[in-house]
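The following block was generated as part of the benchmark described in Methods. Ligand: 4'-deoxy-4'-aminopyridoxal-5'-phosphate.
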Amino acid sequence: MDVRSSLRVREFGTSVFTEMSRLAVVHQAVNLGQGFPDFPGPDFVKEAAVQAIDADLNQYAPSHGLPRLRLAVAEDWGQRYARAIDADSEVTVTSGATEAIFDVMAAFVEPGDDVIVFEPFYDSYPASVRMAGGMFRPVTLRPPDWRFDPEELARAFSPRTKLLLLNTPHNPTGKVFSRDEQTIIAELCREHDTLIVTDEVYDRILFDGVEHVPTATLPGMWDRTLTINSTGKTFSMTGWKVGYVVGPAALQTPLRAVHQFVTFATATPFQEAMASAMELARTNGYYQELRDSYQARRDALAEVLTAVGWEPLPVAGSYFLTVDITMLPFADDVAFCRWLTTEIGVAAIPTSAFYTTAERAPGHARFCFAKRPETIAEARLRLANVPAALRRVNVAAHRRERGQPI
Ligand code: PMP
Ligand code: GLN
């Protein structure tokens, strides 16, 4: 049979995360590629799931989420941002942030509408925009601090602009958008009457006292903003796929209309467990521990990479470090990551996968530090085999040479 896929999906390859994890298995590499923790999830969360299964919470949840979980999310917003959220109409539970991103695009984007996204971007964004028939409008973030040019952003808006999708803390760069930067973005969205969707899945993984500002909390932004989050990152259970979207009822209605026909509902016992997790984490010190442990992991991996001469760029949030590898004699970041995985036994992700075309990518490799100390120690041992000629990337000198800010 001659099977032809729809035009919409014809250009989708296999995700870089699947590809690099597969290569890591084949070569028994330490997997610092795909972003997932390799340490056990917290006991209090696992116990809650066991209890939920024992209590026979095995049937469909209400489509937009268990009331207890929606209430926990609403209370979280009340506590963190002093924002009163109506748990019934202003929170929807989805099967991870990935589903939420797809739902939002299907709910709001008409064929031919523009969606503005900062580049680099998480790889599901262009796919979800395309499946909705929308046009992807990238706006460049420039290393090393990943600033955007407000004029370039302003030029990206047009009467076709439907929504802007913002990710903070940002994957793959680790940038946390400041209040001032978000104010510029928010003003443009208001001026052009554009929706804004924020992907805040790393909102609890922040370093060095940096503050996370949800766009929805900026003056005048609540009515036009949907905030996506994922308990997978916060509670180190990426495989449970419990995400949620917070925002005004008027925006939830179209989102829920899509969600009910994509998954209908998210796994009941895991929703129940995440409700318990959020209730307990409010008082048991978990969030502080999470930040401290990630900061220690970040510093440990940064030290390992710096010892090879691959000094990573600064990161303020998320669980990724990036290294500028353009000083090294590889054709591109893909060639570097393949070599590193197959020859050295450490897998990383080429950040060109987060760009519209490889030519726009700066030549960086992304390393995930959501790993046990033993994993990072094993990476150190293996990286000791990097030949001398492939060490010593002096990023500062390199940037000076290219006339880039240091
Ligand atoms: N957004 C970003 C920025 C991510 O990094 C990820 C996954 N790492 C997701 C969304 C997907 O989240 P989920 O696993 O909840 O679908
Ligand atoms: N978001 C994870 C990352 O950036 C991967 C998730 C996935 O494999 N879909 O590595």
